[in-house]
User: Fold these one by one.
Assistant:
Number 1:
Amino acid sequence: MEICVDLWHKSVSSNMKYLRPFSSVLSALFLSLTSIVAYPSETMSVASTEPVAQAEDSLVSVIAWFNKRDTMTYWINESKWAFDGQDTLKNMDVSTKVMINVLDSTKKGYRMEYRFMDFGMDTAAAGMTSGFIGDIMETLRNKVVGTTVKFRTDEVGQITKIDNEGELRKQAKSVLADVIGAMPFVDSLAAVGIRTDKLLKGIDADMMVDSYIEELEMLFQCHGNQYSIGETSSHNEATDTEYASDTYMAVWSDPESYKYEIVVDINNYIPREDIRNMLGDLVDIFLEGDVADSVRLEMDSGFEGSVKEDAVYNSYLYISYFPDGWPEELVYQETVRIGDKGKADQKYIVWDYRSIGNFD
């Protein structure tokens, strides 16, 4: 039974409520796996790496050496891909321009602001949803451009506080209302048995605020930590709370430019039976009545033939820094793959303008 359904993608907050249409409930649930995979944050985040007592020249320390009135602008590009064998389809390509200013610098840390300057989208990548997504992007451009996140860091650059969180939450509620109001198909989903209350329950102002600062936190996630120069690989067996995983980490430093780079590449291995359980849980959460029964039957009958391998959930981080601790370039990609089919989400952040050393 083919039913056209829209489910919120796991990164809906970061792309301001982007909805991706699927050809059937089964495929939608399959491609939503990453929203419920138990991914250990202490493994995924390189910011948890402990300092190692080695010779000073064998370590890289990520430390902010900023000055009052320093300014950096960045372009953030977010793209989403689906692949099946050799066929690849780009489903989304959204760009955001942001600016970071240092308002004050003291011995205890920095007072800074992060401002949204522009949004753009490749409508060709959005395919059949380009009209709807275009309306969403126009709403965001009108509402969000100019929004400023005021924040503080300690003396090494770790973010310690968002100063205007209440103001951001108030604005987020307004943006959220406008975005949901631009979704003409939401009411029609309930008519065919889709539990729209469950779909929208997790989409709130707090999630919007999180989306405002997601990339900001990425840019500063390693500050205050030391990393051993070189390459390491490790394997962790599955436990009751974590999947089996392989982790690769590499750190490089250029002795001439003093720039440095960090790479973390992690594969988590998700057993085939867990995939079945995840899909069943999503059916129970988002569907009801005859629709839920029909989809569950379709899933049970088709699972054995269509899912024959375990899933691999890959997380890849690359980040490079200027000598003064300002991020230069960042790539973060998540890929979920079963056999030769799957999806990939990528964030690419690169500096655009740089004004530093503006001493009093």
Note: Confidence is low (pLDDT under 50) at residues 1-55.
Number 2:
Amino acid sequence: MRNISLINLEFSEVFFMFHTVELYRDINSLEYYHLVNSLKSLSKKSKTKYFENYSDKRETVFNCFTENGIIIVMKQYQVDIYTYHKVKIRINPKRLTNNNEFVEVAKENDLDRIRKEFRKVMSILRKEFNEKSKNKVKFIFDMLDKYCVRRIDFCVNIFFKNSEKVMELIRRSDVPKNFKPYLIYDTKDKRFIMPKNSFYINSKLLTINIYLKNAQMLNDNYFNSINISTSEGIIRFEVQCYLQKVNNIKSKYKIDINNIFNIATKNIAEETLRYYLKKTVGFEDYYTLSEAKNLINNNKQYRDSTKKEMIDLIRLINKKRSIPKAREEYSGKSSSFDMLIKKIRALNINPVTCLLYTSDAADEGLGV
């Protein structure tokens, strides 16, 4: 496992683009009335449940299309004296095109098929709606381009033979400014920790979640009777973009209409993923502590005093087991810490080092 290059590869070589997308459109009261009645009728026929959203009582969640990777949410809410209505649709696009696919992610060239499959699946709702409304209200809810994107999860699956060891290194990555780690309470250690087998951080705009796909599926009872062997060795890098981030993307790329066909492109997905991976994990190679020290010492670019500071920092990161914890313990200025990190990365060395050999462990009394 010497000189691990984590994600220094062309994204075109892997399955990548997006996994989950949440769409919405504003509707009038008559459309809302007939849609809700039609969905209730379909739920009864398919023996599926619908329920009030526990986190937002103004929403009703319908599960009559979950086998196709679709959840429909009907929302009715008031602002002052006015009542507004929305329909929200959450889609797993890969499951929409293949009901039994839980690992691969959708790509840009899947979009036309996603459009056709969505319309095909919604034909049942169209029929029910037309019967309820007696064809007096036009049904356009099977047309994906009529919806706006509320959330999109860009992601890439990458296979590693030693995925568990790589995941342990990723968990020690940096947490950018304005992000907070998602923590759960560990009853054994009696402290808050990041969920096992994942690197999970949030901001107001988005969530970054990097995790072992197989471990995630093993912990979900839904997959108990499903063969999940294709997920072994896969680490998924996921950037979940919420509405404000989607609006920022729309502005950055000068997109006129915020629909799935304009947002879910290879270019936007790749640039978004690369940007946030660089700010967290980095694209540099992983080395053992001894190897990293040698590379820094042998470099002619920096003065000896700077080299010492860089080596002291990677020792601290190694000792504290993560960049954020090392930042907390660092005795110098925050700006100095960040500058040293930048210099280490400039040598194609990841500041997170791995101790895998006896000589390294003896050097520091530590190990992975």
Note: The CA atoms of residues 94 and 106 lie 5 Å apart.
